[in-house]
Design a protein that fits this description.
2 copies of one chain form a homodimer. Chain A is an alpha+beta fold. Helices cover about 30% and strands about 25% of the residues of chain A. In chain A, the strands form 5 sheets. In chain A, strands 6-9-10-22-21-20-17-11 form an 8-stranded mixed sheet, with helices on both faces. In chain A, strand 1 and strand 2 form a beta hairpin. Chains A and B meet through helix 3, helix 4, strand 6, strand 7 and strand 8 of A and helix 3, helix 4, strand 6, strand 7 and strand 8 of B.
């Protein structure tokens, strides 16, 4: 080793020891006759002293040439510091340097390698290896490692087997777009990269593996939105001879374990709500339930009281903003402006101040008296000092708009605390959704999800009303996982493919192996997949998944550091029997 | 849960308990008035009893219809068996069934689901999910899981951080062929799937991560040989501020830990040999050292004694076959025939029997007396009762031929024992090899490998003589890992690319990001990558890696179960701006 200790290892106990350290120059302070250099590695920072009198002359001279990020190796004696820094593990000592070797000199980096850097986003991505040197970024990735180890050990101890499923599989044009991989040996044919190992984990259950997990990269060729990656990591799990309740129990225990082990947070039993309840109470199937502000439906209380704006609408619904009664007119108008912006698209807001003295002040005083408003306050849970915002309109759109407002208010009021955690199970999702554009059903979860037993009849009569044995796990307003009980009966799977518009031939071509497998003793089974990137980010107190990925791609799907994707050579294309075409030639 | 216990959980202690089991019908024995059914899951097999008198009539009747691999759920009472089976964990009890539910009936499987099956290779691959139901196959994958968990926990405890590197990277036509992934959003451009995360792990060291590991899929588009997969799994590791010795120490400890933990085998310090020694002593850079039979070079002893066949050749070399003196003439001739076959390609074998009475019998008695042959015996380590095989020819080819013979003899004599383990480090590999066909150098390990310091001058004068700081880990005659100290100096890396025939522009296009990174404080670093598939197979007592992969591809790179690769739809190709061409159109 080019060191006897790392840069966070030494303290007063090592006084007078001769040590060798290697690391990066973090900072140089030159006082003329004495030079202090902070040397850094992953484990910490240690202060080096180069002294005109106490260091060999050539060593002292060489120290004058040291610059930021130079990689050096030093030998020296541990001495106690006069002014100690209790914040650093090695803050009680410094090293009087007797020998110095520059292992590799560094050009001045394009941005400072400090916790707060002066580098812009693009620059830091281009030099990601320098960005990763910054302590907060590195700590994010060490945190990710700890989370994955905890997940692996928890599941392994619960008898789950980690099985690697293949990456070179077959394209199934249903659902999101696949990334594909041309096969050289099978000219004209392609593999696809998995969007998830869904069918393989089902086959493992059919194979009797009983409990499976894998932390696995998945791929989706979608038009990228902010903070969405073309490759992402999933904690993928499946269990046999289970019902929905067993899966919720198992993975509730896992999340509780993680929060306890990683964050020291004890979470009680996770609340449950159905998809319908989530939409009604929060306008959202991934509600952040940390800060109340549940929806109060006001149709019965607010309609037919002469206020036309309400009377004509499908839904009147409000939320209470804690402490909002003290908002100025200007502040309230800012919220009204916000909801009118196209990304929310509401027509306006009615507001009611619940004053501390029990009186009310609202934009609709003309139509509603104190008795009415007291009922509104009850319905929205508003207390003295709060403000009620009310929206009216078509139910679905209005709920969505109010949800956006609710989240934005919580964000701005600091109610979405990074170190506070609340999980919730959302259950009873619809099995199908109707796609107006293409005049067909889509599977809300995926085509392998089992309908609820009691809704089986609806598949023939009114499929869109059928509920699925599907559930989402929501943490702090983010969907961190979703799963379902799967179909294990061949004829039901056929019916499902049929509902989804597959011809018999298409079903056979794409999923023939699964249909075959269902005939040879397929047990009841179900599972869940958790998005690791997001889970880690939320546990780490952030919602920006890119901060928890070592080498992320930008929103255009590019790795700007290595400059990929890139053109191939003509030889490569020829070997693959491929020709790239200008879009316009089609 | 659809069970109270799994099928390996119950024993005499549970007598008289009412239990619910779910599983697969393994076997049905119908005695007319009593039916025994073995029910199986991942954990074990439990015997069920359906009794005309003691079971409800409808349950007994239904039991008569059960067939192999039906998935059933039963409720019943645990009773002690009359004739116990001590080999099974649940062999002391059986379940008197009171309720039976067929969860999913099975068609008769295309082969028997038993430890020894009647299914051929292709059939078992097509129905891999049924093949995986067989206990030995499933146990292989559970074994793999145990190995990977042990590796992860070992490395994690040694401060290695598991960092996920990207799968969608850039093609680098140097070396083996890449699998590529067309980018829809960047028309005409492609990602490549990684052959290894080599440059990324180096960037992580430059980023100060200090110790990195990842168990990661890698991809190589090679013409497949038997038992080679287009996607394979690597235990990928890298360390900073280390020299070769530190890496050997760390990973020797890991393999020792695995063997101890997984197999209960204590391995002492691993022997070391240089590449040159391995070739001289075993004709092979991945020697199986479990059974001696090291080469004895006989030039000095056997040349210039009047035997023309030897005199004219570059190398005369022999091995001692333990106990081989008792071979019949016919047996010896079979070995001679073997080495003459084209896959070995030798011209013949000279043999010497070292008889128990101290006398010799050889094919060259005319030229060599007992004194000569005694010296041969010493050189090859032959003892009384052994047989010496001698080959002569061009050094490189002859060593290769003799190595093939040595391995085949060991195989046939049962000297390559699956439960015996011997590891060896092979070091001091050449840095470069000369490619006669293309008239250029290839990197023997890869272009990032550092030459030995003392050989730096040879890079200018005689590059092919330069040795590298590269090492292989060999277990039981298989290369299970290889690594090197990397180049951390930009100008040396440039020189290396230059030697390998990269133009400046090519080096910049393909590895510009790495060259940049080397300027910003790149520390000395090195690492190793172990082939997980092979490591697991060897630890599991096999050399067939396919048996330790859940869903392997065949030698044509096809997944015959899902039938991939396959053609894309025209729409998919259009979106990707791609056209597939008939090979002949080029």
């Amino acid at each position: 080793m080019l060191r006897t200790h790392h840069c966070g290892a030494l303290n007063e106990k090592h006084s007078n020891e001769e040590v060798t350290l290697s690391g990066w120059v973090q900072k140089v302070r030159n006082k003329g006759f004495i030079v202090w250099v902070d040397i850094r590695d992953r484990y910490g920072v240690t202060q080096l002293v180069f002294d005109e009198e106490r260091s060999p002359e050539w060593v002292f001279k060489k120290s004058l040439e040291l610059g930021r990020e130079d990689v050096i190796q030093i030998r020296g004696k541990v001495i106690e510091r006069e002014s100690k820094n209790p914040k650093m593990s090695s803050g009680g000592i410094e090293i009087l340097v007797g020998d110095l070797k520059v292992l590799n000199a560094a050009k001045t980096p394009p941005f400072t390698i400090e916790n707060e850097t002066d580098g812009g986003d693009e620059l830091r991505m281009q030099y990601r290896y320098l960005d990763l040197r910054r302590s907060p970024v590195r700590e994010n990735l060490i945190f990710r490692h700890k989370v994955t180890m905890a997940v692996r050990n928890f599941l392994s101890q619960a008898d789950f087997i980690d099985v690697e499923t293949p990456y070179l599989i077959k394209s199934t044009p249903e659902g999101a777009r696949d990334f594909v991989v041309p096969s050289r040996m099978n000219s004209g044919q392609f593999y696809a990269l998995p969007q998830s190992p869904q069918t393989f984990k089902q086959l493992l259950m059919i194979a009797g593996f009983d409990k499976y997990f894998q932390i696995v990269k998945c791929f989706r060729d979608e038009d990228l939105r902010a903070d969405r990656q073309p490759e992402f990591t999933q904690i993928d799990c499946e269990m046999t001879f289970v019902e929905q309740e067993d899966i919720l129990f198992q993975f509730e225990a896992m999340i509780q374990h993680l929060l306890k082990k990683i964050k020291g947070v004890e979470l009680g039993a996770f609340p449950r709500m159905t998809f319908t309840e989530a939409i009604q109470q929060y306008g959202n199937d991934k509600p952040d339930i940390r800060f109340g502000m549940a929806f109060g439906e006001l149709n019965e209380l607010a309609q037919n009281k002469g206020f036309n704006v309400f009377d004509s609408q499908e839904l009147v619904v409000g939320i209470a903003v804690p402490g909002g009664a003290s908002m100025s007119r200007k502040e309230i108008d800012a919220w009204i402006d916000l909801v009118k912006q196209p990304q929310i698209g509401a027509t306006g807001l009615v507001w009611v101040k619940c004053n501390e003295d029990g009186s009310y002040k609202s934009t609709v005083d003309k139509f509603f008296g104190a008795d009415d408003l007291t009922q509104w306050a009850e319905a929205t849970g508003a207390r003295a000092g709060d403000l009620i915002f009310v929206m009216a309109g078509a139910a679905h759109a209005t709920r969505k708009q109010l949800s956006a407002l609710r989240m934005e208010i919580a964000e701005q009021m600091g109610l979405r605390k990074a170190d506070e955690f609340a999980a919730v199970w959302v259950t009873d999702f619809p099995l199908l959704e109707w796609d107006e554009d293409n005049q067909r059903y889509h599977a809300m979860h995926h085509p392998f999800t089992a309908p609820k037993k009691e809704d089986m009849g609806l598949l023939d009569s009114d499929p869109v009303k059928a509920k699925a044995n599907a559930y989402d796990l929501v943490l702090n307003g983010n969907e961190i996982g979703g799963g379902s009980i799967r179909i294990h009966d061949k004829s039901l799977q056929e019916k499902m493919f049929n509902l989804l518009g597959f011809s018999e031939q298409e079903a056979k071509d794409q999923f023939g192996f699964l249909m075959d497998a269902l005939q040879f003793g397929a047990p009841p089974h179900g599972g869940i997949a958790l998005g690791l990137d997001r889970l880690v980010a939320i546990l780490g107190g952030s919602e920006i998944i890119r901060d928890f990925i070592a080498f992320p791609k930008n929103n255009g799907g590019r790795d700007v550091m290595i400059d990929a994707p890139a053109a191939l050579t003509l030889e490569q294309l020829e070997e693959l029997s491929l020709k790239t075409l200008n879009k316009k030639t089609f």
